[in-house]
Amino acid sequence: MVPPPPDHEPEASGRLHGDIISLHPYLGYVYNPAFSDKLFDKSVNDFGFYSSTLPTTPAYRSNDFVLCITGGSVAAHLVASSEEQMIARLEATEQLRNTNVRITTISQGGYKQPQQLLGVMYFLSRGADYDAVINIDGVNEAVWYVDNDVNNNIDPSYPYGWSWHARRDNEASRQIVKTLNKQAEIRAQTAGFLIQSHLYYTATGIAAANWVRLWTARRDTALQQQALKVAKRDNHASFSQTGVHDLNSGTAITNSVAGAVKLWQRSSLEMHNYLSGRKTLYIHILQPNQYWHSSLSRSVISGSHLRGESIYGSVLPKCIGPFREAGRALSSRGVPFYDMSAFFASYSQDVYVDDCCHFDKQANHDLANAVVDILLSHLGGENL
Fold first, then answer.
1. Domain residues for 203?
2. Which of 46, 72, 183, 316 is least surrounded by Cβ atoms within 10 Å, i.e. has the fewest?
3. What is the signed CA dihedral for 364, 113, 376, 372, rounded to 10 degrees?
4. Which of 179, 205, 236 is at the close of a domain?
């Protein structure tokens, strides 16, 4: 076994110093639990997710109700911003009035299928016992599948950024990863300062946070491209970085989109089939996004939140039709599927806070309330 580098010496608590993002043998990557950043006042738990309830949580008592929300960063933001609100609403309802509701999450920035499928299976194998699983996804499945496939010659089913997550075996790549981690720390520190100074949701605070996000995001993209160049220079990328690459490589985006839709649809169906066998409710939600057609009147979206030249702007408009069609097919096979891609369509103000996918705290609360409504519509006395 190769020993860890010196900056990964364990603390007395058993947590590790070092990279903000840590590789995980089954999930791809998680946040390092030693990372001190908070998301909507939520800290990273011992498994690397932003929730106060661990994803291994079983139902300790007969009146426990454990809800797991999985997906990418939008799912993570929903839980971090609205966990207590959702619990309060659920425990006040007729269906769950006498229960102890707990919400956990298996969600990370960039997570895409089959990470949700594998994550749920992994934590169930570790003793978790969920009464319901809600999967909120769609954007990462489209964008990062296509990016892996068409742009980076990586197995499109592999996790987001895998070429540089896995490339830690030479000094140039280690320095790139170190810089990426530092930029994530800059974003976290900026958000932390703005929250503590009560500026985070003011016009000034939002503008400052957006400037930092855009500046670091552009540098992230340049660094990731540099990592790929390093890999190609060093006898091209290794199998551990690329996997068995799909035959769509180098073809039109539309062909790659078809592959993304199939993987997304199959993964959701497998989650539904397996969880149904456990008598666990599974709900699949197609997330809102500013680049989906009809997601929100473009006249009210800030120009800094809608960049047509970005990978989101170039890929997502081509995907909404096929993803909606695949969602309808899931419904026809018994999957409780909900197309919420146009959830913010009637809003008269911009709810987005960056140029990829995230929205403000009130919009998160609104979406959380809608998710609770959907969950309650499936809960009857026999489900408890």
1. 168-236
2. 46
3. -10
4. 236
